[in-house]
Amino acid sequence: MKKTKKMSRLLFWEAVRGYLFIAPALILLIGLLFIPMVQGFWYSVTDFNILKSWDYNFIGLDNFKKVIADEDFGIILKNEVIFAVVVTVITVVISMLIAVFLNNIRHGKNIIRALVFMPWVLPEVVVGALWRWILDGEKGLVNSVLVEYLHILPEHIQFFSEATALASVCFVYIWRTYPYVTIMLSAGLQGIDKELYDAAAVDGCNGIKRFWYITIPNLKYVLSICSLMAAIWTMNGFGIINILTAGGPGVSSTTLPMTIYKTAFQKFRFGEASAYSVIQFVIIMIFALIYLRVTKATKEEEA
Cis peptide before 217, with omega less than 30 degrees from 0? Predict the structure, then answer.
């Protein structure tokens, strides 16, 4: 009996000690994430506008009604979905091809990996400024080379015009995101048993069949994680868009984060900005739930 009590005390103090170790990180998480999130939900149902007053009143769902009734809301929501889907799909496809290439080369693999990973380590400000210069419609590098030096095009391409602004932003985000996904997929490829490929080669399977029937099934879990992460990063993207187009021209490249920023810090309507934030939170949660269902089904298949 005494030994049992002594063991229980030891386990209790071990648990207390463990909680004390994680307490600083937990407090920081609550202060920087949980409390602002709850406050954002509260602001979304108030008339908080610092241009009028720091006082605010509960107004229910009026902010959401204003947001949905806005004539630009449909375009912004469509931009958000197109932006997330296009960047995620193309990034995963390109990253998969590069990862397979890196997995098959024998010489200079580490140097090539370092070069591939370089865009990811660059700050968003640097990436945005760099591509703003490269794609500039008048003095950009691309236009200078294609029009003035090679004479391939008769006139300059306006990459940030209303028709092409969103496509240009998608391209830059793909360039920024693919290195991380490539490294993740490369790690997954190294975990696949090479004997499977050897056995398939003996049975007469070509490279495409080996890729489709061995590589893809063994990377389902990694692919689902990479897809979710890329989608969330894209939907939360702000810095690069702000530098490249600031959401323009008009709202042609405006996404929900840009709208939240403009509504809160240019128009100072924090209530409406919080409503946009809640809508974005719901969209991200939908993506997360889809991810959980996919990963659960993948684990059940592997089991």
Answer: no
Name which of 118, 196, 134 is nearest 168 in CA terms: 134
CATH number at residue 155: 1.10.3720.10
Q: Do the beta carbons of residue 132 and residue 246 sit within 8 Å?
A: no
Total structural domains in the chain? 1
| Contact residues for 83 (Cβ-Cβ < 8 A; gap 6+) | 166, 169, 170, 173, 234, 235, 237, 255
Assigned domain for 40 exists: no
Which residue has 């193309």 as its token pair? 90
CB neighbour list of residue 76: distance below 8 Å, 6 or more residues apart: 251, 254, 255, 256, 259
DSSP three-state, residue 138:
coil
Look at residue 21 and tell me if it is in a domain.
Answer: no
CB 117 within 8 A of CB 187: no
Helix extents (H) in 105-136: 109-121, 124-134
Give the model confidence (pLDDT) of 40-71 as tens digits: 889 899 888 877 777 788 888 899 999 999 88
Q: Is the pLDDT of residue 157 over 60?
A: yes
